[in-house]
Sequence to fold (462 residues):
Amino acid sequence: MDAIVARVLIVDDDAASRRLLEVRLRALGCETAMAADGQEALAAIQQELPALMLLDLEMPRMGGMELLRTLRRDAVDLPVIVITAHGSIEAAVEAMREGTYDFLPKPFDPHHLEIVVRKALERRQLVQANRLLQASLDARIPQILGDSPTIRQAAELARKAAGSNSTVLLLGESGTGKEVFAHAIHRWSERRDKPLVIVNCVALSEHLLESELFGHERGAFTGAHQTKKGKFELAHGGTVFLDEIGDMPGALQAKLLRVLQDHSFERVGGTKSIRADIRVIAATNRNLDDAVKEGRFREDLFYRLNVMRISLPPLRDRMEDIPALAGHFVTKYAAEVKKRVRDVNSQALTILQAHTWRGNVRELGNVIERAVVLCSGDQIGPVDLALSGSSSSTATSSAVVPTPLTDFHSQVKAHKQAVIRTALREAGGNQTKAAELLGLQRTYLVKLLRALGIRANGGAER
Fold:
C-alpha cells in the first residue's frame, strides 16, 4: 500500500513512546515533529501547522485535554488522534467532544494505527479538496464591486437581509446587478449550502412557467409523460430567485402568494399538498407601485414581496465604480480568451466614465469583453473601445454611423479609423503625440495606420 506523505506532530511526555510512533509513521512515509507536552505542541503548531497530531492525554505542564480545548477555542483546523495509556470511555467521549478524530489506547496495534492514520490523512485531503473546489466555485459567482456610497448602502442592506428568512425585493434598471445581489444574499445566508434556484418569469409562457415553478404530475397535460418536480420543490432548504417578477401572469401571482404565505403548493395536475422550506428573492425593473395602482400586479402579493426592499443604483449614479468594474471584467474575459490583457489605461477609463451607460453594468461588461478580444497589447486603450452614442469623449467625438450589426468587422474597423483620425487631428499630425493620446506605442500606431489605410495626416490612402 502506498504511503501518504504528510507532516505529523507527536505529542507525548514519554520519549520511548514518541520514538516508537516516529518509527511507525516514517515507515508510512510521514515526516514527524516532536513535543513533550501541550505547551511545546502549541509552539510547534504556531511555527508550522501539521496535517495530523497524535496526542497523549496525561502530560505535565499542559495536558492533552487542555491542548484540545485551546485549539478548539482558537479555531485551529487540525485532526487529532488521541493515544493514551490512561484511556477510559469517559476520556474518549470527552476527547471526541473537543473535536478528536479517533481514540486509540496504549499499547496500540501497529496495523490498527496505520489504518487510523491513513483514514485521518485521507479525510483531511478530501476536506481540503472540497474547500479548493468551493473556492473555485465561489470565484465564479459574481461579486458586488464598487465603493460608491450608493452601492455600499445597498450591499449593507443586503447583508442585513441575508441574516433573516424574509422575502427580498430587488428593484433597479436592467443590467444594474440584481442577480449579483441575489447570489450575494444567498451566499451570506444560513442557506448557503443549499440550492439557489433561478427562474426568469418572462422567458417562458404562462403554462410553461407554471410547470417550471410548481412541477407537474404525469398526464397533467399533453406531453407530460412523467412526473416532474418544480423549482420550489427542488430548492427545498435553499433560495428561489424570481427574476422579472413584474411580468408574472396574474393567475400565477395568486399561486405564488400561497407559497409565500404557507410554503405549500400542488403540482400541476396534482392534489397532494407539498411543503417547501424556501426563501424567495424577487427582482424587477418595473415600477411595481404603479403596477399595483393600475391593477396589473396583485396588491397582496406586492406586500408579501416588499418585506426587504433594496433599490440598486444605475451605473450613471456610481461612475466612480467604473475602474473597479472594468478591472474585474478585464480579468474575467482575458482569462476566458487566454489573452494577457491586464487593465484599462487612463485614456480609455476617461472615455468609459464619460459614457451614459443605458445598459448599466451589463453594457459595461459587454464593452470590456469586446475590447479584450480586440486588444493587441496588455492594456485596453481608446482604440479598443467600441462605444456608440458617447458625446463627451475626445476620442469618440467623431462618431461614425454604425454599419449593420451583421457586419461586425467592418463596424470595428470603421470605429478604429475614426478614433485614430481624431487623435491625429488633436496631435496636429504628430504620430508620437497621437500615440500618447491613445495610450499606444508609436510603432503599433504606425502598424495600425497601414492596416487601416490611414495616411499620416489622418486622411485615407488611395
